[in-house]
Amino acid sequence: MFLTNLQKEILEKKGFDLNNIKEIERYLNPKWERDLFDYKKIKDINKSIERIKKAIDNDEKIIIYADYDCDGIPGAVIIHDLFEKIKYTNFSVYIPHRHNEGYGLNTKAIQKFIDEKVSLLITVDIGITNVDEIRFAQDNNIDVIVTDHHLPIINEVGEQILPSAFSIINTKQDDCEYEEEFLCGASTAWKLVHAFLDKYRDGFDVKTGWEKWLLDMVGIATIADLVPLKNENRLLARYGLEVLRKSNRPGLQKILKNAKITQTKITEDDIGFGIAPRINSASRMAEPIHAFNALLQNDGSMNFADELENYNNARKQDTKDAHKSIDYEKFKNEKIILIGDTNWTPGIIGLVASKISEATSKTTFVWGTGEDKNILKGSVRSGSDGYNVVEIMTKAKNILENFGGHSEAGGFSLNKNNLKKFEEFLREYSIKKEKIISSDGTQQSETSSETISSFLEINIKDINRKLFDEIKIFAPFGIGNEKIIFKIKLSDSDFIKSKRFGKQNEHLEIIINGIRGIEFFVDEKREQELISKKEFLINVEWDNFRGDVVVKFVK
Predict the structure, then answer these.
(1) What separation in angstroms does the CA of 228 have from each of 10, 41, 148, 480?
(2) At residue 421, what are phi and psi to the nearest 5 degrees?
(3) Which of these, 408, 407, 551, lies nearest to 483 by C-alpha position?
(4) What is the tens place of the pLDDT at every residue in 143-186?
(5) What local confidence, expressed as pLDDT, does residue 434 receive?
(6) Average pLDDT in the 191-219 region?
(7) How many CB atoms lie within 10 A of CB 461?
(8) What is the pLDDT of residue 135?
(9) Is the sign of the CA dihedral 154, 160, 163, 169 positive or negative?
(10) CA pair distance 399, 389, nearest whole angstrom
(11) CB 509 within 8 A of CB 481
């Protein structure tokens, strides 16, 4: 395998041994037959597909119950498309309302299924923490197959508390032997579909390999849900992007057109900044089922795609309004941030949490209010402090009404009377944690992350198409496979000019010797900082619209 000196240097920065050709080959050139893990190692997967086959044979009513985000919704599409492909019609898709029902299974919906004589419920991206709700379903003759990737509840002695479902497909179970622990929810659902077709495809006349066309949904969810892009996830993301570039879903194509994304050139950034926000906007601003309908294989999906565009525009405005009211100075001395506003809806709190966490590098809990003004709905994002947010919420379970998620992101609900108590808990938790970290000497400062410290120095004249072509083989980038950071230093003779752009001039473009640099959502303080700098940390990317390289500034 021929590698340039720059590529070798990048591999070393990423921790690869240059003598381990096999490992490098797997990373740079994932191959389907070689690198796809064996689903047979997933606990309960055979039991699950046999139960689905029995339900089909007996024409049982099946419910696909999915989370309302850009992991659960694509996952629901995957199982829906399987049933449509095999011409099974006695099923429906249920996605709970974010504001009215909240995260996960709820007994009111399950009671509705009981009344409708449902006998099989398949979850997507939820269920692992719904111990009481699943017991209620099972006690009322509804078998529940859980497909989820979130962490189970952990008791005081560190044991997992699993729901009494008919079967559980979750690679985070202690006794699951599957090699990829960090599958997203849609990938977990796809594994179920893959297993089902491998065993039963001949009886339904489904050609070998048809399931690969569902990887467009897997690719969207894998990248949008921020799972580590290593090992099998890297394979699924890479192939998912390839299928996305060819996907003939009319609604998806309309989403791309509205977002000004060229389908044949889709990248992981297009998913993160274009596709995912539009899918998520349905649950944030209206009905999540609209996003599901936008991804189906029918002409009506295009109308739903246009609805998503309207929801996304409204969501952006609400988020901007919320962000303007935040006083960052107030949190300067806080290790963990807790902030909220009674005017913030559950639809924007996750976005606000992400923005604050990115700006401060601190774990951030954000709350807002829904229909029940006594119950605060919350969202949390981890910072660069190494905190596991599920661990935090588990230790606060006596204060919280409900919670769920994974190590880097999650959701919670909280009685407003316990808000002060939760604030005090977070402060005490961070103090205790800091003492533990300090005692073993493993704490990192907020600005000394591995990503920032592993930059490569280059000259600004070297930023061109050739450089981009050298680094694009490392894509797709994401958690666990971060973008390559370069450092450039300017001399007094380098020419800099700047201008703002965007509907409200909220973004900044800096041109250095003809090379465009961009940063989004820049306030005046940051603008002055950028213009006066003599050295920058940057990512080098390709602008499909203009057909040239562009740099993004790294904070």
Answers:
(1) 18, 20, 16, 5
(2) -65, -40
(3) 551
(4) 999 999 998 988 888 899 999 999 999 999 999 999 999 999 99
(5) 65
(6) 97
(7) 11
(8) 97
(9) positive
(10) 15
(11) no
Is residue 513 predicted with pLDDT exceeding 70? Answer: yes
φ/ψ of 105, rounded to 5, equals -70, 150
pLDDT of 454 over the 80 cut: no
| Distance (Å, whole) CA 352 – CA 371 | 20
Q: What angle do CA 483, 486, 487 make, to 5 degrees?
A: 145
User: Average pLDDT in the 110-139 region?
Assistant: 97
Where does 7-119 show beta strands of DSSP type E?
Answer: 62-66, 91-94
Mean pLDDT of 438-451: 39
Please state, as a whole number, how many other Cβ atoms lie within 10 Å of the Cβ of residue 285: 22
Burial 85-105 (b: 16+ CB within 10 A, else e): bbeeeebebbbbbbbebbbbb
Q: What residues contact residue 466 under an 8 Å CB cut-off, 6+ apart?
A: none
**Domains of the chain, first to last:** 42-218 (3.90.1640.30), 325-440 (3.10.310.30), 450-553 (2.40.50)
Tokens 């599957």 belong to which residue? Answer: 178
**406 contacts: CB under 8 Å, gap ≥ 6:** 149, 150, 151, 389, 390
Residues in contact with 147: Cβ distance below 8 Å, sequence separation at least 6, in sequence order? 48, 75, 122, 123, 124, 125, 127, 169, 170, 185, 188, 189, 192
pLDDT of 449? 37
Distance of CA 216 to the CA centre of its chain: 15
CA 79 to chain CA centroid, Å, is 19
CA distance 47 to 392: 34
Please report the pLDDT score of residue 452 as a whole number.
41
Mean pLDDT score across all residues of the chain: 90
* Residue carrying the six token digits 């044979």: 57
The set of residues, in sequence order, having a beta carbon less than 8 Å from that of 65 and lying 6+ positions away, is: 94, 95, 96, 105, 109, 121, 122, 123, 124, 126, 127
| Contact (CB, 8 A) for 460 and 515 | yes
What's the pTM value of the predicted model, to 2 decimals? 0.84
pLDDT at position 354, please? 85
* CA gap 362, 446 in Å, rounded: 8
Q: Which helix (H) or strand (E) holds 316?
A: helix 301-324
Residue ranges with strand state E in 140-287: 143-147, 153-154, 160-161, 167-169
CA distance 193 to 495: 56
Alpha-carbon distance of 140 to 511, in angstroms, equals 65
Indicate whether 453 pLDDT > 80: no
Burial class (CB within 10 angstroms; exposed 0-12, middle 13-18, buried 19+) of 44: buried
Q: Residue 504 burial (CB < 10 Å; 0-12/13-18/19+)?
A: exposed
